[in-house]
Design brief:
- This protein is of the alpha+beta class.
- It has one domain.
- It has 2 helices and 4 strands.
- Helix 1 crosses helix 2.
- Bound molecules: zinc ion.
């Protein structure tokens, strides 16, 4: 299961209708609205998604 990096909803890669590739990584979205938001500022959302992915391993 992938996560929509804009609204944090779970998105199934198999059935996702909206996706975008940024720096070699595929991102999936619940809607065209979220995809457009991502493409307006991919750096911001890609960074947030990565943080959440590895978040449980980090303590500071
Ligand atoms: Zn969304």
């Amino acid at each position: 299961m992938a996560m929509d990096p804009v609204c944090y909803v779970d998105v199934d890669e198999e059935t996702a209708r909206f996706s975008s590739t940024y720096r070699g990584t595929d991102y999936y979205f619940c809607s065209d609205f979220c995809r457009k938001k991502f493409e307006e500022n991919p750096e911001k959302y890609a960074r947030l998604a990565t943080k959440i992915d590895i978040g449980t391993d980090i303590s500071c």
